[in-house]
């Protein structure tokens, strides 16, 4: 062979196929061509694509796991805040606490029991 690129026997580089384009873009010298035969190139490319997909899915899964961990921490913080606010609300809504707040505003607690107002239609 007089050229420095490896060509399959009986094939010209003027073809319109994928491998002729690959040969134009990525010329291989004879030492590489002895190790990697062009007939194995589709399998090698397929395995390479699978490796890239595997690595990408692994990164995606790790990102999701970190995100889930952060969300669990946020949920625990919000749950603690909710419990604290609920306890404060329950304490402040007791009648004795409402009476203290009303007294501070200058209001008096009524000693008269509430009564029902009945409206009759005539």
């Amino acid at each position: 062979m007089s050229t420095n690129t490896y060509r399959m026997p009986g094939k010209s580089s003027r073809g319109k196929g994928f491998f002729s384009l690959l040969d134009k873009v990525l010329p291989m010298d004879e030492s590489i061509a002895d190790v990697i035969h062009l007939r194995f190139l589709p399998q090698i490319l397929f395995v390479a694509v699978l490796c890239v997909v595997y690595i990408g899915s692994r990164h995606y899964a790790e990102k999701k796991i970190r995100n889930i961990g952060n969300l669990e921490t946020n949920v625990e913080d919000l749950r603690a805040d909710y419990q604290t606010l609920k306890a404060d609300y329950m304490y402040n809504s007791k009648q004795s606490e409402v009476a203290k707040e009303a007294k501070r505003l200058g209001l008096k607690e009524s000693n008269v029991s509430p009564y029902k107002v009945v409206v009759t239609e005539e």
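The helical segments are 18-25, 30-35, 41-92, 95-104. Residues 99 and 110 are 10 Å apart (CA to CA).
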